[in-house]
Amino acid sequence: MVADQIRERILRGDLNEGDLLPKEAELREQYPVNVQSLREALRILEAEGLVRVRRGNRGGAVVHRPTPGNVAYSLSMVLAMSGTDIDDVGRALHEVEPMCAALCAERGDRATEVVPVLRALHEESLSKVDDLVAATALSRRFHESVVKLCGNRSLIVLAGASRPCGRATSRIGQASERTRNGFRRQNGPRRWPYTARSCSASRTATPHRRG
Questions:
Q1: H or E stretch at 54
Q2: Domains of the chain in sequence order
Q3: Beta-carbon contacts of residue 141 (< 8 Å; ≥ 6 apart)
Q4: Rg of the chain's alpha carbons, rounded to an integer?
């Protein structure tokens, strides 16, 4: 199938972000199918977010490499249709983050590559503790940094896709006052040192899990 072959080239890295696929006539030479089959293949790839088809004389299919944002968009729709709320997404993330903290603690270069980043964010947050907007932004940066620094690509993608899902589902259904108050209690800057301590602990240390 043409869509499968082009998709494989994108995922393999043969086609990069922003590359323009050949014109329709050239594609038909590469893939000997009729016009309808070729256009259907491009529609499939466009629906998957792997290409964007521009119309008109200067049109064409522009390649887009997959990102956690692509996954998040589809996943947020599935979660919304199943009635999943932001509390549920939050609980899932709270299970993922301790695993990421443990992996950060196992990094041999954690003293230079992990701990300084987390400490800097934590110290900055203490000066913004009474500014809810700033504290919320710093909280997000802190938790995202724990994930990005863990070194496990699968967890990075999973958490990266889940965070936008949480924001999307919160727009679909407004979070309750209990949820908002719970966020302040559970995610405030004074709770963050558990991760910094975990990352600076010995290789065999087990990070504290939030109860």
A1: strand 51-54
A2: 2-63 (1.10.10.10), 68-200 (no CATH)
A3: 121
A4: 22
